[in-house]
Design goal:
single chain; alpha/beta; 11 strands; globular
C-alpha cells in the first residue's frame, strides 16, 4: 500500500518518527555537500542525490571502539565498549546505498558473524528515498538496481508536491503503523499508486539519456587468472596516486585495521577503516604481500568485479553510486576499469 501526504508535511513526519526512535537524516552542509546527522526540530532533510560518505557509517563506523583492557598485576579485565541497545531509523537512503548493505551483510554476517556490525544492523530501520534526478555519474542500473524503486524496510518518493510512503519489510510496516499519518492528511488510493508509477517511468526515461546507461559489467568469473595477468593493469595503475579517496567514499569497501592505544589507564582497542590502496596495508613483520602500486590497484578492482562475484553468486561489490567518479583527483575510477576489462576480454 502506498500512502500519500503533502510534501509540506515532511517536517511533521520526521518529527513523529523522531518521537518513536532516534532518527538520522541527510542534511546539507554546503551547496555541494550533505552528511547524515541526528534529527532535531528545525533541521531540513537534504534532497541532494548522495551524501559525501555513505550510510554504511551506521553499521561499520570509520572509527569504532571495540574493547578496553584494564590490568592489575597478572589480572586482565576485558571491558566490552558496545552501547548499541536502542532502535534507530536511517531516513532518506538512496537505492545504491541500500544495496551496499546487502554487499556488507554478506561479509560481516557470514560465519563467523561480526557481532559489532550485527549489533548496529539489527537495531536499524532503513527508509529509502527514490531518486528523481539521477546524475551523469550514476550507473546503479548497471548492477540491477532500480533508483526509482529502492529496497529497504520502507521507501519514499517525493513528486508532484507530495511524499509517497510504502512499507516493504515487517520492520518498515511497523514503523509506519506507529505513526499518526491521518493527522498529516494521509491518503492511500489507486491514484497514489498511479502517480508513483508515472514518477518511476519518468526517472527511467532520464536514465536512458545518461552517458553511462549502456555500461554493463562483464562476467569474468571463469577468467580469474586471465584477468589477473592482463596487461591492462600496468597502464591503468600508472595513473593512480594511491591516495585511497575512492575507498573512503565507497559504500561497499570493508577493509579495516585494529589498533591498540595505551591511554595511561589501560589499553583501548579500536577498529578503523583502512585501504587496500595503501602501501602499508596488511603490513607484517616480513613486509606487505603487495609491494607495488600495480598489485594494490589490481587488488581493489579485482575484488569489486571478479573475486566478490565468484564468491557471491555473481553479485558485484560495486553499486554504481558514482562517488569515486566525483572524488578521484585524476579521474581514474571503476568505470574506466570496467571498460578496459571489457575491451581486454
Amino acid at each position: 500500500m502506498i500512502t500519500r501526504i503533502s510534501s509540506e508535511k515532511l517536517p511533521e513526519l520526521l518529527q513523529q518518527i523522531s518521537e518513536q526512535e532516534k532518527l538520522y537524516i541527510p542534511v546539507d552542509k554546503s551547496d555541494k555537500l550533505s552528511v547524515y546527522e541526528e534529527y532535531a526540530p528545525g533541521k531540513v532533510m537534504s534532497l541532494k542525490l548522495n551524501t559525501l560518505r555513505s550510510a554504511k557509517d551506521f553499521f561499520f563506523p570509520q572509527v569504532q571502539p571495540m574493547a578496553k583492557f584494564r590490568m592489575e598485576g597478572k589480572k586482565i579485565e576485558v571491558i566490552d565498549q558496545r552501547t548499541e541497545t536502542e532502535d534507530y531509523c536511517i531516513f532518506g537512503v538512496r537505492a545504491c546505498d541500500v544495496r551496499s548493505f546487502d554487499v556488507l551483510d554478506r561479509v560481516f554476517l557470514a560465519d563467523p558473524v561480526d557481532t559489532y556490525y550485527e549489533d548496529r544492523r539489527k537495531h536499524a530501520t532503513v527508509v529509502s528515498f527514490a531518486c528523481s534526478e539521477p546524475s551523469e555519474t550514476c550507473f546503479c542500473h548497471s548492477f540491477g538496481i532500480d533508483a526509482a524503486k529502492p529496497d529497504g524496510d520502507a521507501r519514499m518518493w517525493i513528486a508532484n508536491g507530495n511524499v509517497y510512503l510504502e512499507g516493504i519489510t515487517e520492520k518498515g510496516e511497523k514503523l509506519l503503523a506507529r505513526l499518526d499519518l491521518a493527522a498529516l492528511g494521509a491518503a492511500a488510493d489507486d491514484a497514489a499508486v498511479q502517480e508513483v508509477e508515472a514518477e518511476q517511468q519518468r526517472v527511467h526515461e532520464i536514465q536512458k539519456r545518461m552517458p553511462l546507461y549502456s555500461l554493463k559489467p562483464t562476467d569474468n568469473r571463469d577468467k580469474e587468472l586471465e584477468i589477473f595477468n592482463s596487461p591492462i593493469w600496468k597502464e591503468l595503475s600508472d595513473k593512480c596516486l594511491g591516495c585511497g579517496s575512492c575507498t573512503f567514499v565507497c559504500p561497499t569497501c570493508q577493509c579495516f585495521d585494529i589498533e591498540d592505544f595505551d591511554s595511561g589507564h589501560g589499553v583501548e582497542r579500536y577498529r578503523c577503516w583502512d585501504s587496500c590502496m595503501y602501501k602499508d596495508f596488511t603490513m607484517m613483520a616480513a613486509g606487505t604481500p603487495r609491494k607495488t602500486q600495480l598489485e594494490r590497484f589490481r587488488q581493489r578492482f579485482m575484488h569489486k568485479l571478479v573475486y566478490y562475484p565468484i564468491r557471491n553468486d555473481g553479485i558485484y561489490s560495486c553499486v554504481g553510486c558514482g562517488r569515486c567518479l566525483r572524488r578521484c583527483p585524476i579521474h581514474m575510477n571503476i568505470v574506466k576499469v570496467m571498460k578496459a576489462m571489457e575491451e581486454d576480454a
